[in-house]
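Quiz preparation item.
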């Protein structure tokens, strides 16, 4: 079985400032180690500041287009040129607020990989979909959109983040057992085609992860770390989550 390095990714969303970069950069650099990958996803204007401190960075989204008359959009190549290594694609807020379809997310995934960024593909179900027993159908469709466009091999150079929509920013969190069930479903789905790829694939959990629940979540066999929202804006909380990820190694 492949050994997967844990990852803790902090999604700042539309938060942050020069002062916050200064407050968090030392703490983040101090918690980094060879044991885990730590990545921060700030708003676009703060990317150069964070990258300059030696922190691994990523964009919260990228355009599926290479260039052109797309006011307000940012191309993946520019993100790469800024020193970023990652980008999120398909975060639930991009899907629900900005109407990004599975096909659009797959196109963003493709563009990210084209320029050498590692996409973190966000998947997850709404509360209504969960109550209707559609979790696996929804998650499978979101993953299949990428596989259908690019082939299964594209997942080798990517990360998947399972983020139940009903648990994002609500204070609700899937139990470790609930989260593990979906993570195992994702890994088993991919394993039906390639066991090696499935075992090597990093799958993160996102959904109100904090310093109190991270240890139990990360202890699950198919959860390889977390995509952290609000807690990534506070140095003590974020570093505590990182330390809990180190404890799984």
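Solution:
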């Amino acid at each position: 079985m492949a050994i997967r390095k844990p990852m803790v990714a902090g999604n700042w969303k539309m938060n942050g400032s020069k002062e916050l970069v200064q407050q968090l950069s030392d703490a983040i650099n101090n918690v980094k180690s060879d044991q885990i990958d730590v990545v921060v996803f700030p708003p676009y204007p703060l990317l150069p500041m964070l990258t300059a401190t030696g922190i691994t960075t990523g964009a919260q989204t990228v355009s599926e287009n290479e260039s052109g008359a797309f006011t307000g959009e940012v191309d993946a190549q520019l993100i790469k040129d800024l020193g970023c290594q990652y980008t999120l694609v398909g975060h639930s807020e991009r899907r629900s607020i900005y109407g990004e379809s599975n096909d659009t997310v797959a196109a963003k995934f493709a563009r990210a990989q084209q320029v050498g960024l590692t996409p973190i593909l966000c998947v997850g179900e709404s509360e209504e979909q969960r109550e209707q027993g559609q979790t696996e159908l929804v998650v499978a469709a979101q993953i299949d959109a990428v596989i259908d466009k690019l082939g299964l091999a594209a997942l080798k150079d990517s990360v998947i983040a399972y983020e139940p929509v009903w648990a994002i920013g609500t204070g609700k969190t899937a139990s470790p057992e609930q989260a593990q069930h979906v993570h195992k479903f994702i890994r088993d789905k991919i394993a039906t085609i390639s066991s090696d790829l499935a075992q090597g694939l990093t799958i993160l959990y996102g959904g109100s992860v904090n310093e109190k629940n991270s240890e139990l979540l990360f202890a699950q066999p198919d959860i390889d770390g977390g995509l952290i929202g609000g807690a990534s804006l506070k140095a003590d909380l974020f570093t505590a989550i990182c330390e809990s990820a180190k404890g799984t190694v």
